[in-house]
Amino acid sequence: MLTAAVAAAERLEADREAAFEPWQLAAERASYGAQRAERRYRAVDPENRLVARGLEREWKESLKAVEAAKADLARRESERRRMITEQGRSRLLAIGSDLVSLWNASTTTARDRKELLRTPIDEVVVRS
Q1: Domain residue ranges in the chain
Q2: Alpha-carbon distance values, 13 to 7, 20, 45 (Å)
Q3: CB 44, CB 55: distance < 8 Å
Q4: Which residues contact 68 (CB under 8 A, 6 or more apart)?
Q5: Which of 1, 11, 46, 109 is paired with 98 by a 20 to 30 Å CA distance?
Q6: What's the confidence (pLDDT) of residue 122?
Q7: 3-state DSSP call for residue 107?
Q8: φ, ψ dihedrals at 110, nearest 5°
Q9: What distance lies between CA 106 and its chain's CA centroid?
Q10: Residues in the chain with pLDDT < 70?
């Protein structure tokens, strides 16, 4: 039962990682666009002021887009938290072996076993 819970948490974590990927790609695209705009600006003939001004404006706008994409990525990174750490996984699996010994202990009553069954069910929270 606990192994299934750990596997479900790990699947959920993998899904969250996959959902985070578009923001990482957006930041990379914005950065690439800014580099491209800078190269175009630096390649223009300084004598051609009108074109240079337009390219400089494009470069500055692309730098603003990079900042916005990085800020959005940082915000989403801070909101994202790991569902289960390696330490938490080990502790959860260790609890499983303790539950088996507790369940089979001669001092555990039927009422105690019912409480043990109800506890995980009351504590399960599913988030998407």
Answers
A1: 16-82, 85-128
A2: 10, 11, 51
A3: yes
A4: 30
A5: 11
A6: 47
A7: coil
A8: -60, -40
A9: 45
A10: 1-6, 8-9, 80-84, 92-93, 95-97, 118-126, 128
* Cα–Cα distance measured from residue 64 to residue 61, given in angstroms and rounded to the nearest whole number: 5
- Which residue is listed with tokens 């699996």? 93
> CB–CB of 57/38 below 8 Å?
no
In the chain, what is the straight-line distance between the N-terminal and C-terminal CA atoms, in Å? 21
Tokens coding 8: 């479900």
Q: Give long-range contacts, CB 8 A cutoff, 24+ apart: 4-11.
A: 5/92, 5/120, 6/84, 6/89, 6/92, 6/93, 9/83, 9/84, 9/89, 10/83, 10/84, 10/89
Contact 102, 108 (CB under 8 A): yes
- pTM, two decimals, is 0.55
Rounded to whole angstroms, how far apart are CA atoms 115 and 99? 12
Contacts of 44 (CB under 8 A, 6+ apart): 51, 52, 55
Question: How far does Cα 29 stand from its chain's mean position?
Answer: 19
Which conformational region is residue 89 in: left (phi greater than 0), alpha (psi within -120 to 50 degrees), or beta? alpha
